[in-house]
Amino acid sequence: MGAEPDGNPDVLELSRAKKVLTPPVLPNGRLECSIEVVRSVLPHRPPFLCLDKVIVLRDRVIGVLEVNPAVCVGFCFRGADDIFFMGTLITEMAIQLLGIYGAQFNELRRLKREFALVEHGIGRFHKSIRASEKVHMELPTDDVHIRGSADSKRFLLEGSNFVAKVDGNTRATVSFVKLLSTIAPVAEPRP
Questions:
Q1: 25 or 126, which is more confident?
Q2: 95, 174 in Cβ contact below 8 A?
């Protein structure tokens, strides 16, 4: 899925780890994560929160975002009717989708975890996405691999072949995303 980044011993160790996690159990073959669940996992808030909900199916994970003008701030061309979703946010949507899916695995749900971007691949954009369009980012579950350290304190999440669609038509793709998941530090109580 891409070259291993030099100099990060956690990533190098985890990319060779033998402990592979099994997917979450899906009651009735489907799990839906509302915006409240998304916000409980991710620290992002609008306009940088790129998911309204996530639907986990046996064969794919789907992130849904209703693009609105607030998300598109700074990308207005030729008047108010031509507002576009930033291309970089397509990649951010893929990153957030992998994080939410990873958080559904039992080994990652037990403790409060943090996700850090290790690297991402190439984003290819086929057609712009405008404000008021609904984006469906799809990730095939067969293209997700999660490996854990022997002590279960660190996990490497890898996902590939992300496809962003509007009305069933491909608008963009992201080749791969790698995330490092670690146990979040416990906040010290304030006096």
A1: 126
A2: no
